[in-house]
């Protein structure tokens, strides 16, 4: 399954383009722009599993830096600052990784 099986390719392109500048990434706006906020919990889990490159059941900080590439292969990497901010927002239990159920 690919990201475009779940999300509109044009929405992905617009969202990735909107945050192409370094240190401009805003996860809430990005996820809204790609249409993730309108998806069912099941579809959100499918997106999570696409982004979980090592299939560990978690998105670790090293995977998080490449999250935009999970939506579009030619997207940029997140900066260290952006990665830490996204981890802080998603890591509800403070274990340094984001689980499929947000923790």
TrEMBL record:
Domain of life where this protein originates: Eukaryota
Domain annotation EF-hand: ranges: 39-74
GO molecular function (one): calcium ion binding
Annotated keywords: Calcium, Metal-binding, Repeat
GO CC annotations, alphabetized: cytoplasm
UniProt xrefs under Pfam families: EF-hand_7
UniProt binding sites for Ca(2+) 1: 52, 54, 56, 58, 63
InterPro entries attached to this UniProt entry: EF-hand-dom_pair, EF_Hand_1_Ca_BS, EF_hand_dom, Parvalbumin
Binding site for Ca(2+) 2: 91, 93, 95, 97
Functional summary from the UniProt entry: In muscle, parvalbumin is thought to be involved in relaxation after contraction. It binds two calcium ions.
Family, as annotated: Belongs to the parvalbumin family.
Protein name: Parvalbumin
Organism this protein belongs to: Cebus imitator
Lineage, opening ranks: Eukaryota, Metazoa, Chordata, Craniata, Vertebrata
